[in-house]
């Protein structure tokens, strides 16, 4: 049964797909080489103003997609950021035109390693090129041009999404009036790289990975992918959140100590791993985590020079209990931008929910976004 959109919902929405690059005019990749054709799945909410001055681009995180708000026909759950986007919400679609696109390298409608390689007709698999953050941004830019938008009022994203925003605003400040970077990092620590390395090893060591050709073999590395998701999910929640939610509560079916699912938290992680298999591709997990590993925009000596005195305003947000990309990651971004004379607003948000807080309706977080975006729209229309 389809859920009925509630107050503040954008209602029924559909995902569209556009071809932004072709074999004849391909995407030129940062590490060399090209990719084409490139299709991109995206959704829009609200109406673009006649002056095209109210556009906000949403950059999604590692396992997100284009469906950020509203309901698809027949669906029972709304888009992944529905608490933020809609009439009367911080991203008020009565005033803002919101765009969200599935990343290239992803698996929800945009070209990625599970897409057909035009040279072979089979899935790319590990023949898909390794991507960098700038490659993701170049596709976002092409979509914005396709939609007739010259400059974004704001680009906004959490985690990997915030990294995309940071890269975009540093490289093309003339295209982004406000850059909103949430629970993100400008450079992964060794610990963060290590988490992703173990997740990738779990996937690639699965006997059904078949050197990335599992689609052609008619199998899927489900065990490895579910373990990768389980481990990652632990890092998205704080210890306080896990304690509050589960504590040491035993699983109701566990009667004697053993090596099955004895505790409620084990059952929860098992469910997260299994549910993930229904919506995500193992190769996309490999490729997009590698994008994050290599991201280090401030290592480019020209990065801040490109911004110069051009008018990008920055909002950087962190969450007090996020230990995956904690406040120290955000402070590094803030300090670097401030040394370059950039106008930066920073706030650490109190929340018990760890890294996942950026996806939740945390009141001071939403209030901060609402106030910032309201001011941004007023300023651009002075």
Q: Kindly state the percentage of residues in helix.
A: 25-40%
Spatial shape? globular
What is the overall pLDDT average?
93
Helix count equals: 11
CATH top level of the largest domain?
Alpha Beta
Distance between the termini: 47 Å
CATH level-two architecture of the largest domain: 3-Layer(aba) Sandwich
Q: How many structural domains?
A: 2
Strand order of the largest sheet: 1-4-6-5-7-8-9-10
CATH fold field value of the largest domain: Rossmann fold
> Care to count the β-strands?
10
> Which sheet architecture does the biggest sheet show?
8 strands, mixed
Task: Please indicate the percent range of residues in DSSP E strands (runs of 2 or more).
Answer: 5-15%
Q: What is the assigned CATH homologous superfamily of the largest domain?
A: Alpha/Beta hydrolase fold, catalytic domain
What ranges have pLDDT less than 50 throughout 5 or more consecutive residues? 1-6
Helix/sheet category: alpha/beta
Radius of gyration based on Cα positions: 21 Å
Keywords:
single chain, 382 residues, alpha/beta, Rossmann fold, Rna Polymerase Sigma Factor, Chain: A, 2 domains, eight-stranded mixed β-sheet, two-stranded antiparallel sheet, 10 strands, globular, disordered N terminus
Task: Give me a quick take on this structure.
With 382 residues, the chain is an alpha/beta fold.
Describe this structure in words.
It is a single chain. This protein has two domains: 16-189 and 296-380, Rossmann fold; 192-289, Rna Polymerase Sigma Factor, Chain: A (Orthogonal Bundle). The model is unreliable at 1-6 (pLDDT under 50). Strand 9 (313-319), helix 10 and strand 10 (344-349) form a beta-alpha-beta unit. The chain is built from eleven helices and ten strands. It has helices at residues 133-146, 160-171, 190-204, 214-217, 222-236, 239-245, 264-276, 282-294, 303-307, 327-339, 363-380; strands at 16-21, 27-28, 34-35, 38-45, 55-59, 97-101, 154-158, 178-182, 313-319, 344-349. Helix content is 34%, strand content 13%. The strands form two sheets. An eight-stranded mixed β-sheet has the order 1-4-6-5-7-8-9-10, sandwiched between helices. A two-stranded antiparallel sheet has the order 2-3. It is globular and about 70 Å long. With 382 residues, the chain is an alpha/beta fold.
